[in-house]
Automatic annotation (TrEMBL):
InterPro entries: ADTRP_AIG1. Pfam families: Far-17a_AIG1. GO terms for cellular component: endomembrane system; membrane. It is a multi-pass membrane protein. This is FAR-17a/AIG1-like protein. It comes from Aphanomyces astaci (Crayfish plague agent). The chain crosses the membrane at residues 6-29, 49-68, 80-101, 122-142, 154-170, 182-201, 221-242.
Amino acid sequence: MATNPNLWKEILCGALLGIVGVACMYRIVAYPVEPGRHNVQIAFNPSNVWLLSFRCATFVFFVVVWILQVQSSNWFELVYYTYWNFTLQTIYFGAAIVDQVRRWSRPPTLTDRYYANRPLNTLFDVVFASLILVALVYWIFIFNTAKHIEWPTYVVHLVNVVLVVVEFAFNEHLAQRTSLKYVVLWPAIFASVAWIGHATYTRGFWPYSIMSLDNPYAPLVWLGIGVAHVVCFGFVLLLSYFKARWVGGEQPPRLLARQDMHLHA
């Protein structure tokens, strides 16, 4: 009876995905992202027409690129993690536009100026961390000057990095440690879908050869992908720390009052 040489790797990778999925889902259920807002040190002006214009232009640009690429590939581009992330980036900019317009269209409040949209902040954390990793992997390990590169490749590996960094520089978001579970869960979901696709609709195709279970180091590769996301998220936390120091400083008057009461108690 023939044995499956990849069985032990399938068991290890399956167990790894299961552990990550269960752990992250437990954290999500036990400590959900509240639909309200959370205080930040970055005062935000919802009526910033330049930021809104930038977001609208970026969103339209991303949508056009997404449609062109997905249509030309007959949806096959969506098997790649790059386009999973590009889709998430597009969703973020659309959601950011809606949030800013909604806050701009009503009378200004302290909540609008001093508090960030928590779910939107979490989405941005996932977008930023995965964006950095995808760009690093492409430009360090995949980019080949001898090969012809189509212009959309530059968009999803370089132009989007510049645009998201600009967004980070001018928005109200600071990375939240509570976003880590989502940052780790995101690639785990992709790996699970890619594995299912390999066994079904993509007929044995792996989006990235390094993920193949024929690779003797596959379990380490899969583990390394998750660890790399954690490292990139740590870098985003570091950037947020410097952002808060350089452009932050204002705090909600209510919080300042509480601090004063605490100091004089």
